[in-house]
Amino acid sequence: MDEKLEFSKRLRAAMQAAGCEVRASVIEHEFNQRWLGRSISLQAAWSWLNAKAIPAQDKLQVLAEWLKVEPQVLRFGEGVAESVQKYKARWEDKLTYEERETFDAFLQLPAPQRKILREVILTFAKAHQEPPPEDPAS
Protein backbone atom coordinates (compact mmCIF):
# COMPACT_ATOMS: atom_id res chain seq x y z
CA MET A 1 0.00 0.00 0.00
CA ASP A 2 1.34 3.41 -0.95
CA GLU A 3 0.44 5.65 2.01
CA LYS A 4 0.95 8.87 0.07
CA LEU A 5 -1.31 7.71 -2.75
CA GLU A 6 -4.01 6.55 -0.33
CA PHE A 7 -3.83 9.85 1.57
CA SER A 8 -4.11 11.77 -1.69
CA LYS A 9 -7.23 9.80 -2.64
CA ARG A 10 -8.82 10.49 0.75
CA LEU A 11 -7.94 14.20 0.53
CA ARG A 12 -9.48 14.44 -2.93
CA ALA A 13 -12.62 12.61 -1.81
CA ALA A 14 -12.96 14.82 1.28
CA MET A 15 -12.63 17.94 -0.84
CA GLN A 16 -15.29 16.71 -3.24
CA ALA A 17 -17.59 15.76 -0.35
CA ALA A 18 -17.12 19.26 1.09
CA GLY A 19 -18.13 20.77 -2.26
CA CYS A 20 -14.66 22.12 -3.00
CA GLU A 21 -12.90 22.15 -6.32
CA VAL A 22 -10.04 19.62 -6.16
CA ARG A 23 -7.13 21.94 -6.86
CA ALA A 24 -3.89 22.73 -5.07
CA SER A 25 -4.71 26.44 -5.14
CA VAL A 26 -7.92 25.75 -3.19
CA ILE A 27 -5.99 23.82 -0.55
CA GLU A 28 -3.36 26.53 -0.32
CA HIS A 29 -5.96 29.28 0.11
CA GLU A 30 -8.27 27.45 2.53
CA PHE A 31 -5.44 26.00 4.59
CA ASN A 32 -3.58 29.29 4.95
CA GLN A 33 -6.75 31.05 6.10
CA ARG A 34 -6.97 28.65 9.04
CA TRP A 35 -3.29 28.03 9.82
CA LEU A 36 -1.67 30.32 12.38
CA GLY A 37 1.87 29.35 11.46
CA ARG A 38 3.92 30.08 8.38
CA SER A 39 1.83 29.75 5.22
CA ILE A 40 2.21 26.70 3.03
CA SER A 41 3.23 27.06 -0.59
CA LEU A 42 1.26 26.05 -3.63
CA GLN A 43 3.91 23.36 -4.13
CA ALA A 44 3.21 21.89 -0.66
CA ALA A 45 -0.53 21.78 -1.37
CA TRP A 46 0.16 20.21 -4.77
CA SER A 47 2.37 17.55 -3.17
CA TRP A 48 -0.41 16.57 -0.73
CA LEU A 49 -2.92 16.35 -3.55
CA ASN A 50 -0.65 14.39 -5.89
CA ALA A 51 0.73 11.67 -3.62
CA LYS A 52 4.14 13.24 -3.11
CA ALA A 53 3.85 14.02 0.61
CA ILE A 54 1.63 13.67 3.66
CA PRO A 55 1.25 16.72 5.89
CA ALA A 56 2.51 16.71 9.46
CA GLN A 57 -0.06 15.95 12.16
CA ASP A 58 -0.68 19.58 13.10
CA LYS A 59 -1.36 20.50 9.48
CA LEU A 60 -3.47 17.39 8.99
CA GLN A 61 -5.70 18.52 11.85
CA VAL A 62 -6.29 21.86 10.14
CA LEU A 63 -7.18 20.11 6.88
CA ALA A 64 -9.54 17.76 8.69
CA GLU A 65 -11.27 20.59 10.51
CA TRP A 66 -11.70 22.52 7.27
CA LEU A 67 -13.07 19.47 5.42
CA LYS A 68 -15.18 18.29 8.40
CA VAL A 69 -13.64 14.83 8.63
CA GLU A 70 -11.90 13.13 11.52
CA PRO A 71 -8.11 13.59 11.29
CA GLN A 72 -7.41 9.87 11.71
CA VAL A 73 -9.85 9.03 8.92
CA LEU A 74 -8.23 11.56 6.60
CA ARG A 75 -4.76 10.24 7.45
CA PHE A 76 -5.41 6.49 7.69
CA GLY A 77 -8.85 5.83 6.18
CA GLU A 78 -12.20 4.52 7.37
CA GLY A 79 -10.97 0.94 7.73
CA VAL A 80 -8.56 1.80 10.52
CA ALA A 81 -11.15 3.91 12.32
CA GLU A 82 -13.74 1.13 12.08
CA SER A 83 -11.26 -1.46 13.30
CA VAL A 84 -10.38 0.65 16.33
CA GLN A 85 -14.06 1.29 17.10
CA LYS A 86 -14.86 -2.44 16.90
CA TYR A 87 -11.98 -3.23 19.24
CA LYS A 88 -13.09 -0.56 21.71
CA ALA A 89 -16.71 -1.72 21.54
CA ARG A 90 -15.61 -5.26 22.33
CA TRP A 91 -14.05 -4.04 25.53
CA GLU A 92 -16.87 -1.67 26.45
CA ASP A 93 -19.72 -4.06 25.71
CA LYS A 94 -18.45 -7.34 27.09
CA LEU A 95 -16.65 -6.48 30.31
CA THR A 96 -18.49 -6.72 33.57
CA TYR A 97 -17.89 -4.35 36.44
CA GLU A 98 -15.81 -7.00 38.22
CA GLU A 99 -13.65 -7.55 35.15
CA ARG A 100 -13.03 -3.83 34.78
CA GLU A 101 -12.13 -3.65 38.46
CA THR A 102 -9.70 -6.55 37.97
CA PHE A 103 -8.05 -4.86 34.99
CA ASP A 104 -7.73 -1.62 36.94
CA ALA A 105 -6.03 -3.50 39.79
CA PHE A 106 -3.75 -5.25 37.30
CA LEU A 107 -2.69 -1.92 35.80
CA GLN A 108 -1.76 -0.58 39.24
CA LEU A 109 0.71 -3.42 39.86
CA PRO A 110 4.44 -2.93 39.29
CA ALA A 111 5.68 -4.03 35.85
CA PRO A 112 7.39 -7.27 37.05
CA GLN A 113 4.17 -8.48 38.71
CA ARG A 114 2.10 -7.57 35.64
CA LYS A 115 4.53 -9.59 33.51
CA ILE A 116 4.10 -12.68 35.71
CA LEU A 117 0.32 -12.40 35.67
CA ARG A 118 0.32 -11.90 31.91
CA GLU A 119 2.34 -15.10 31.46
CA VAL A 120 -0.05 -17.01 33.75
CA ILE A 121 -3.12 -15.74 31.86
CA LEU A 122 -1.60 -16.55 28.46
CA THR A 123 -0.68 -20.04 29.67
CA PHE A 124 -4.27 -20.64 30.84
CA ALA A 125 -5.63 -19.28 27.56
CA LYS A 126 -3.35 -21.55 25.55
CA ALA A 127 -4.29 -24.59 27.64
CA HIS A 128 -8.00 -23.96 27.14
CA GLN A 129 -7.99 -23.28 23.40
CA GLU A 130 -10.29 -25.54 21.46
CA PRO A 131 -8.42 -27.94 19.21
CA PRO A 132 -8.79 -27.28 15.50
CA PRO A 133 -11.52 -29.33 13.79
CA GLU A 134 -10.38 -32.62 12.33
CA ASP A 135 -9.89 -32.81 8.60
CA PRO A 136 -12.65 -35.09 7.22
CA ALA A 137 -10.29 -36.22 4.44
CA SER A 138 -7.89 -37.91 6.88
Automatic annotation (TrEMBL):
Protein name per the record: Transcriptional regulator
Matching InterPro entries: Lambda_DNA-bd_dom_sf
